[in-house]
Specification:
This protein is α/β, with parallel strands linked by helices and 117 residues long. It contains four helices and five strands. It has a five-stranded mixed sheet with strand order 1-2-3-4-5, with helices on both faces. α1 runs parallel beside α2.
Length: 117
């Protein structure tokens, strides 16, 4: 599931439940265990449903990364999951990208802009 894309970006290709909860827990553990927290790209192409527990895990990941000065991108959202994000207002909380490559590029551009500042 979670794989390292580069030194400072973790890419997680997620699956539907029951694996989703376990995979998000692994992302949380990897962020906790990292010497320096990575940025995270969460690829939801394999996910067709999220529950309240999954949403809580996503919010926890975002909070951990925010505290470490890192970012999270969510990509590959199916219509069913997107409707949950809209109804819960999470479309304003998380940063979304249409696909993995766009998410990775956005993180790299933001990182480069941050270094130039």
């Amino acid at each position: 599931m979670a794989i390292e894309w580069s030194d400072n970006i973790m890419l997680a290709n997620l699956s539907d439940e029951p694996a989703l909860s376990e995979e998000l827990a692994l992302v949380i553990d990897q962020i906790k265990d990292a010497e320096e927290s990575p940025h995270a790209v969460l690829d939801f192409r394999g996910v067709s449903y999220v529950n309240s527990s999954n949403i809580a895990q996503l919010l926890r990941i975002r909070k951990m990364l925010d505290e470490a000065g890192r970012q999270m991108r969510v990509c590959g959202i199916a219509d069913e999951v997107w409707s949950v994000m809209l109804v819960t207002g999470l479309d304003k909380v998380f940063r979304f990208a249409p696909d993995t490559m766009t998410a990775l590029a956005g993180l790299q551009l933001d990182d480069a802009a941050g270094m130039d500042a």
